[in-house]
């Protein structure tokens, strides 16, 4: 470490020792470290922001009734401001830590290592810069839109369509092009394993992002129905998939975002920064090959394990489980290669916090990738799903693996990038310890919370009744764990702040001008002959096929692939696509996978509007809408959910967590009055509720004209709305239903003049949830307010006629 | 381990002993002739236990899939749920059979202590969000006092639970709860009368005379 910042100068002596004599002319080049510095700073800044948001929402859960506590009134804004609600901030937290913290960490590491592994500067400084600023602009737009309730309502894919387009351009157009062209223009004949992992990440994230986000933008729906797009048109869209298929796509994406955004790129970083920091050769090249390809091929199948016991077809769920189980060893290949690389360097680990960060990171990676397959086993999942166990699992991955690998990398890079020794080794060590303690204090209470809640949900008493019928009991039991979690998170965040201080002070001590070492290496020429094919190691008397197999397992062919970046990229693409299509084609094409139910009808226009409110408020972050065929569950919530019930749900809203109870059958079991009161302040009805208050929904208004385009958009996506798409019809029906509910509300308890408030639309939607299957096949969702709607339509037409005729009169009068 | 016993063969790192180990210090595997920015790789084989577990997981996957999706003897999650539903329903209602929806049955059930325990669970799960766990009422009426809004006689309690009342203020439960469950709940609600809730809601409706003979027993 002592002479670390002059490492580049040392590396200059490293010639390519195996380039044949006919290599190209010697070329001189330097690396672009300015871009690495930028990404590294962005990583830490956004990391702190993302963790701070996480801490705020953790406290909201731990301290739900703060506003009602005496003397805490000034803090009530934290609970009652629409854009600070848990449902809106939770996506901000996840997006910030995944795409901003981990994303910028990946880019910093990739930009640093790729240039050195390729002996080439990034292909285009302009693209590097566009990539950096483009990515930061995306993050800023996410930080603005998510709290405003602008969301697609799909976890980790919340960002709306214009931002999605920007992501595609920045990721593939700027970063992808720049990275792949650097590979093409490299001066190192073969690609090191880190680069394989970067390639896999680049290719797969592109596919995942594009296919999961295929949606109908509101603006396009407006244009297609003959209107000019409004402001609203650019902040709203609906996925082309619905129900089971949308769920399948979402978790194919969601799971593989973990795989190809949080696992493969970080494995690549580990393969570069760990041997560099430990100054040890990598344990096994063969293991790299085997675990890379098995990981890339198998990971992509595992998504459906997020949908066990749901109405996803059983075969898909089984595939998700089995591929997850088979993924255990491919994942552990990376851990073995990481930890065994440190063999013979453990004395360094005890002295160097950078290596300590790496060791903890790899250990957490190993634990999380053992736990993942375990949680994917259906029976284990039946306990863990919807509980905080999942939260514990993802945080052991995110804080341990991603966070600590990023921090270790950061501390290794700081002296090299700022060309001055790290400001304080002690502070770095303090960061390591406080972070480790914080992490443990975070995950252990969350495991306890998850298992506690899972067991309470399924506990029966002797009579065969649920032991904890009152859902809020199961919430209150885990609130103490929420406190410990918030404390653990605070410590982890404090560690990151230590890191920021260290970074800032190191930066302050930087030289007046950075030294930019000039390197030289021969250009690659097309004339290269691979080493001869190895001979079979088997003795005589074996069959030819045996000899061929032995030659094959020696892996010489892979060495050939390693010098062909385009072929390598295409092969990775093939592995990922094959696996995806194998699961997707049957899910989309075989009708029997989603049996339709005749009595399930599309939402009414007002309910549809309410559904968009539900999505905008992020209700799916705490409430599932998917009752599993598990006795304790149907006992608590009613008949288990069927695939045919969500065929009109663009997007599906099955959820993944039950901080609050499941809502799949919430319709019709409480009065409108109850719901409105509950939205105004849940603690008026359930003293111990931890749900935020949604006062603003009792004030903000429904735009009924807007409702019309929403219905048309759904019709364009194939929802059978029939007559409802005609001019003026949907808005009349929406208005009629709102008036009907408002009238009922007055009779039930007293809220007056609510007929144009958003809370009415949301209540209409909630009251519709899960009721269709108990209705006759020919039931009419509009029955209660059809007459009222007809009158509204007639009145409007009458007025229109009057206006039309009076205009005619005036005109004819004028002509006289 | 950083001794100079291994003579550096190909390593360019003359200034760092660790990088020189041409052989893995434990397995004695060779150092490959790969080198990327100073990073070298050993030619270690993939560990045997890694292969063994990987193969075992693949075998498990094949057998699991064959059993659950290709064989006729397996069962589905829905089958298991159905079987449990039958067993659990029998466990709870086996002794009482199908209950008639009439006053004598309601009165009889109101005196059946074990069944009233069951009904209490159902009340907390389905009714308490509006009527409170102790029946004192929240935005639903107080069920413990002598005042009744939509009930004239005992059987009306069952009818209100079944069909709802007051324009949806009390929702209908006929689609959600079985007849047995609704009869038991009616009996439970009948028993709530005269109990002392923690925070009673103000009385609403008319005062009714006591329901049947069991009230005096309290």
CATH architecture of the largest domain in chain A: Up-down Bundle
Order of helices and strands of chain B: HHHHHEHHEH
Share in β-strands of chain A: under 5%
Helix count of chain A equals 30
Strand percent estimate of chain B: under 5%
Q: How many domains in all of chain A?
A: 2
Distance between the termini of chain B: 85 Å
Number of strands of chain B: 2
pLDDT < 50 runs, ≥5 residues of chain B:
1-18, 214-218
What is the CATH class designation of the largest domain in chain A?
Answer: Mainly Alpha
Net shape of chain A:
globular
From the 3D structure, determine the CATH topology of the largest domain in chain A. Cytochrome C Oxidase, Chain A
The major sheet of chain B is characterized as:
2 strands, antiparallel
Q: Indicate the structural class of chain A.
A: mainly alpha
Output mean pLDDT of chain B: 87
| Cα radius of gyration of chain B in angstroms | 36 Å
General shape of chain B: elongated
Low-confidence stretches of chain A: 1-19, 807-816
Description of the structure:
The complex is a heterodimer of chains A (816) and B (218). Chain A has 816 residues and is mainly alpha-helical. In chain A, 61% of the residues lie in helices and 2% in strands. Chain A has helices spanning 7-11, 34-62, 77-80, 86-118, 125-145, 161-184, 193-212, 218-224, 243-262, 264-278, 285-299, 314-326, 328-341, 346-351, 353-376, 378-384, 388-418, 425-457, 471-476, 479-508, 544-553, 556-561, 565-589, 605-616, 631-637, 672-680, 704-716, 729-748, 758-768, 786-815, and strands spanning 26-29, 215-217, 237-239, 519-522. In chain A, helix 27 (704-716) packs across helix 28. Chain A starts with 6 loop residues before the first helix and ends with a helix. Helices cover 43% and strands 2% of the residues of chain B. In chain B, strands 1-2 form a two-stranded antiparallel sheet. The N and C termini of chain B lie far apart (85 Å). Classes of the chains: A mainly alpha (816), B mainly alpha (218). At the A-B interface, helix 4, helix 10, helix 11, helix 12 and helix 13 of A face helix 1, helix 2, helix 4 and helix 5 of B.
């Amino acid at each position: 470490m002592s002479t670390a910042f002059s490492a580049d100068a040392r590396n200059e002596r490293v010639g390519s020792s195996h380039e044949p004599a006919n290599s190209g002319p010697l070329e001189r080049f330097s690396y672009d470290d300015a871009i690495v510095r930028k990404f590294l700073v962005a990583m830490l800044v956004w990391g702190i922001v993302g963790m701070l948001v996480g801490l705020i929402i953790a406290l909201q859960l731990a301290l739900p009734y703060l506003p009602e506590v005496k003397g805490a009134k000034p803090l009530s804004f934290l609970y009652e401001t629409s854009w600070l609600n848990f449902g809106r901030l939770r996506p901000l937290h996840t997006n910030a830590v995944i795409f901003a913290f981990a994303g910028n960490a990946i880019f910093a590491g990739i930009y640093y290592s790729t240039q050195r592994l390729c002996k080439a500067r990034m292909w285009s400084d302009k693209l590097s810069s566009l990539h950096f600023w483009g990515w930061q602009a995306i993050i800023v737009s996410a930080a603005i839109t998510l709290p405003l309730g602008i969301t697609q309502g799909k976890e980790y894919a919340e960002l709306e369509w214009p931002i999605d387009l920007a992501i595609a351009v920045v990721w593939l157009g700027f970063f992808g092009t720049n990275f792949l062209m650097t590979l093409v223009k490299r001066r190192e004949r073969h690609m090191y394993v880190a680069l394989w992992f970067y390639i896999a990440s680049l290719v797969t994230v592109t596919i995942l992002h594009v296919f999961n986000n295929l949606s109908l933008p509101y603006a396009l729906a407006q244009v297609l129905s003959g209107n000019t797009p409004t402001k609203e048109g650019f902040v709203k869209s609906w996925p082309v998939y619905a129900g089971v298929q949308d769920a399948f796509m979402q978790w194919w994406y969601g799971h593989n975002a973990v795989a190809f955004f949080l696992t493969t790129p970080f494995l690549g970083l580990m393969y570069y920064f760990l041997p560099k920091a430990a100054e040890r050769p990598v344990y096994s090249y063969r293991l790299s090959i085997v675990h890379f390809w098995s990981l890339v091929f198998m990971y992509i199948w595992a998504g459906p394990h997020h949908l066990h016991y749901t109405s996803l077809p059983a075969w898909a769920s089984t595939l998700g489980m089995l591929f997850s189980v088979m993924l255990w060893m491919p994942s552990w290949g990376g851990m073995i290669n990481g930890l065994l690389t440190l063999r013979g360097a453990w004395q360094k680990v005890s002295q160097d916090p950078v290596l300590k960060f790496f060791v903890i990171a790899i250990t957490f990676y190993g634990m999380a990738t053992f736990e993942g397959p375990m949680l994917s086993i259906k029976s284990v999942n039946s306990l863990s799903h919807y509980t905080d166990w999942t939260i514990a699992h993802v945080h052991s991955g995110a804080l341990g693996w991603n966070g600590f690998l990023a921090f270790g990398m950061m501390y290794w890079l700081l002296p090299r990038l700022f060309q001055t020794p790290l400001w304080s080794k002690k502070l770095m060590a303090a960061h390591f310890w406080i972070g480790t303690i914080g992490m443990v204090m975070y995950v252990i209470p969350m495991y306890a919370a998850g298992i506690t809640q899972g067991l309470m949900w399924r506990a029966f008493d002797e009579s065969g009744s649920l032991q904890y019928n009152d859902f809020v009991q199961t919430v209150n039991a885990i609130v103490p764990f929420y406190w410990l979690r918030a404390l653990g998170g605070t410590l982890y965040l404090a560690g990151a702040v230590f890191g920021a201080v260290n970074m800032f002070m190191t930066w302050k001590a930087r030289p007046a001008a950075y030294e930019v070492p000039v390197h030289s290496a021969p250009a690659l020429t097309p004339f290269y002959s691979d080493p001869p094919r190895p001979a079979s190691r088997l003795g005589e008397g074996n069959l030819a096929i045996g000899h061929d197999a032995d030659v094959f397992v020696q892996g010489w062919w892979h060495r050939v692939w390693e010098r062909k970046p385009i072929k390598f990229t295409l092969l990775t693409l093939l592995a990922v696509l094959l696996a995806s299509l194998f699961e997707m084609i049957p899910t989309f094409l075989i009708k029997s996978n989603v049996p339709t139910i005749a009595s399930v009808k599309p939402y009414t226009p007002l309910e549809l509007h309410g559904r968009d409110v539900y999505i905008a408020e992020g209700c799916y972050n705490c409430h599932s809408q998917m009752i599993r065929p598990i006795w304790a569950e149907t006992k608590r919530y009613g008949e288990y959910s069927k695939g045919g019930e969500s065929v009109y749900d663009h997007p599906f809203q099955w959820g993944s967590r039950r901080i609050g109870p499941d809502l799949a059958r919430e319709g019709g079991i409480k009065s409108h009055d109850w719901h409105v009161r509950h939205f105004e302040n849940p603690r008026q009805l359930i003293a111990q509720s931890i749900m935020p208050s949604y006062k603003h929904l009792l004030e903000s208004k429904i735009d009924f004209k807007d409702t019309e385009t929403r219905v048309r958009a759904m019709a364009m996506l194939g929802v059978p709305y029939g007559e409802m798409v005609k001019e003026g019809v949907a808005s009349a029906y929406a208005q009629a239903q709102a008036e009907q509910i408002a009238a009922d509300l007055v009779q039930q308890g007293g809220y007056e003049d609510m007929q144009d408030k958003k809370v009415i639309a949301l209540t209409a939607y909630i009251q519709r949830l899960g009721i269709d299957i108990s209705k006759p096949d020919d039931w009419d969702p509009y029955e209660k307010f059809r007459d009222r709607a007809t009158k509204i339509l007639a009145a409007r037409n009458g007025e229109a006629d009057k206006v039309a005729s009076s205009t005619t009169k005036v005109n004819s009068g004028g002509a006289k | 381990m950083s001794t100079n016993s291994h003579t550096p063969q190909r390593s360019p790192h003359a200034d760092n002993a660790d990088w020189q180990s041409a052989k893995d210090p434990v397995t004695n595997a060779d150092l490959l002739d790969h080198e990327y920015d100073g990073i070298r790789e050993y030619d270690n084989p993939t560990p045997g236990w890694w292969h063994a577990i990987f193969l075992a997981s693949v075998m498990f996957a094949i057998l699991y899939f064959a059993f659950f999706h290709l064989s006729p003897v397996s069962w589905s999650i829905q089958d298991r749920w159905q079987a449990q539903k039958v067993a659990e329903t029998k466990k709870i209602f086996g002794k009482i059979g199908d209950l008639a929806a009439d006053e004598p049955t309601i009165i009889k059930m109101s005196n059946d202590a074990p069944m009233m325990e069951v009904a209490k669970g159902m009340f907390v799960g389905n009714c308490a969000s509006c009527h409170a766990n102790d029946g004192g009422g929240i935005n639903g009426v107080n069920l413990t006092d002598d005042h009744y809004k939509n009930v004239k006689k005992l059987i009306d309690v069952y009818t209100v639970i079944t069909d709802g009342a007051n324009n949806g203020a009390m929702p209908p439960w006929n689609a959600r709860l079985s007849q047995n469950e609704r009869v038991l709940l009616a009996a439970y609600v009948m028993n709530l009368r005269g109990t002392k809730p923690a925070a009673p809601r103000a009385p609403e409706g008319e005062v009714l005379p006591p329901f049947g003979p069991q009230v005096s027993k309290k």
